[in-house]
Each structure stands twice: as C-alpha cells, then as structure tokens.
Amino acid sequence: MKPSPIALRRIGALIQAGGIGAYPTEGVYGLGCDPLNEQAIARVIALKGRADDKGLIVIAASQRQLDPFVAWPEGFTLQAGPRPVTWVVPAAEGLPPLLTGGRETIAVRVTNHPPVIALCNAAGMPLVSTSANRSGRPACRYDWQIRKQFRHGVEWILPAKLGNQRGPSEIREAATGRVLRPAGG
C-alpha cells in the first residue's frame, strides 16, 4: 500500500504543526515528530514511557536533510543501503537535549523505505524515529497494535506497509564502526 498524496500532505502539515504519530519503517512502526520541536519530542518520550537521557534517532530521506543535525566527520558519507543502519555521529550544536539525550552525539539514518522517504519529503524535514511501543514491550508491526497501545496518543498513522527488515535497525558508531545494537533488536 502506497500512501496517497492527500494523506502525505495532511500528515506533513500535522508534523509541521507539532503533531506526533506513527509510520511504518523498514522493520517496525516508528513514532515520529518534528525533531526540533521540543514539546513534540517530550510527548513522544512520555507516550513511550522512555527515559529522557536515552536520545532518539532522526530518520531522513537524504543526507542533506540531516545536515542541520550533524557535525559530519571529515569524509563521512551516509548512504541508504540494502539493510537499515543507524549511525551515531557528532551532533550539531543547539539541538534539543531530549533529542540527543544530552550527549554530544546523535543517532541518524538515511532510509531507503519509500513511505518514509515520501513522509520526510512531505513534511519538509527528517523525523524523530523511535520504535512504536511502550518501553519494555515489543515494537508494533501493525497499525491496529498502535491504536490498541497508544489509543489517542497519536494524531496520525501513515497508511503504508513495513519494509522487509525483521525488527529495528542496526546501530553503529560512525567513528569506529562498532555495532552498538545488532539489527532486529
């Protein structure tokens, strides 16, 4: 299922207005919002019951969308590959502490999943991306699970399909290449 242009425009406007919602990523549903809107970020964290100091992933349609968030290491290029990899890189100055978990790094990913690319482009920005689940529970893989788990906590759900990944993305440290979280959890 491909999201309609009307749905994308509507959801893009909700994101720009501070709305939070859910969307299918490469492997699980993600909760998302404007990554510079501190109130929206705080609502996502509260909805998950997540600690403030964990930080959140920012997912984008392109590396260019991530430029305002990252102090790129010399010569480092992010590419969307056959499997999703989230990179921990030096954060740009002035980002919301809830986004970075108060660290000098930020976790970012360029997606190759068409619905997320379309959503980022419709919103005109990258998005917060954290698995759609309450902390300690399995991530949602179906929109009905989001409705059941979050009831009225999300303002939108992007009507589209998950990618072929099973579970969350791998997370790697850009400076060393060290795997911080293997793919799938």
UniProtKB/TrEMBL annotation:
<keyword id="KW-0067">ATP-binding</keyword>
<dbReference type="InterPro" id="IPR050156">
    <property type="entry name" value="TC-AMP_synthase_SUA5"/>
</dbReference>
<keyword id="KW-0547">Nucleotide-binding</keyword>
<dbReference type="GO" id="GO:0003725">
    <property type="term" value="F:double-stranded RNA binding"/>
</dbReference>
<dbReference type="Pfam" id="PF01300">
    <property type="entry name" value="Sua5_yciO_yrdC"/>
</dbReference>
<keyword id="KW-0819">tRNA processing</keyword>
<protein>
    <recommendedName>
        <fullName>Threonylcarbamoyl-AMP synthase</fullName>
        <ecNumber>2.7.7.87</ecNumber>
    </recommendedName>
</protein>
<keyword id="KW-0963">Cytoplasm</keyword>
<comment type="similarity">
    <text>Belongs to the SUA5 family. TsaC subfamily.</text>
</comment>
<dbReference type="GO" id="GO:0006450">
    <property type="term" value="P:regulation of translational fidelity"/>
</dbReference>
<dbReference type="GO" id="GO:0005737">
    <property type="term" value="C:cytoplasm"/>
</dbReference>
<dbReference type="GO" id="GO:0000049">
    <property type="term" value="F:tRNA binding"/>
</dbReference>
<keyword id="KW-0808">Transferase</keyword>
<dbReference type="InterPro" id="IPR023535">
    <property type="entry name" value="TC-AMP_synthase"/>
</dbReference>
<comment type="function">
    <text>Required for the formation of a threonylcarbamoyl group on adenosine at position 37 (t(6)A37) in tRNAs that read codons beginning with adenine. Catalyzes the conversion of L-threonine, HCO(3)(-)/CO(2) and ATP to give threonylcarbamoyl-AMP (TC-AMP) as the acyladenylate intermediate, with the release of diphosphate.</text>
</comment>
<keyword id="KW-0548">Nucleotidyltransferase</keyword>
<feature type="domain" description="YrdC-like">
    <location>
        <begin position="5"/>
        <end position="185"/>
    </location>
</feature>
<dbReference type="GO" id="GO:0061710">
    <property type="term" value="F:L-threonylcarbamoyladenylate synthase"/>
</dbReference>
<dbReference type="GO" id="GO:0005524">
    <property type="term" value="F:ATP binding"/>
</dbReference>
<dbReference type="GO" id="GO:0002949">
    <property type="term" value="P:tRNA threonylcarbamoyladenosine modification"/>
</dbReference>
<dbReference type="InterPro" id="IPR017945">
    <property type="entry name" value="DHBP_synth_RibB-like_a/b_dom"/>
</dbReference>
<dbReference type="InterPro" id="IPR006070">
    <property type="entry name" value="Sua5-like_dom"/>
</dbReference>
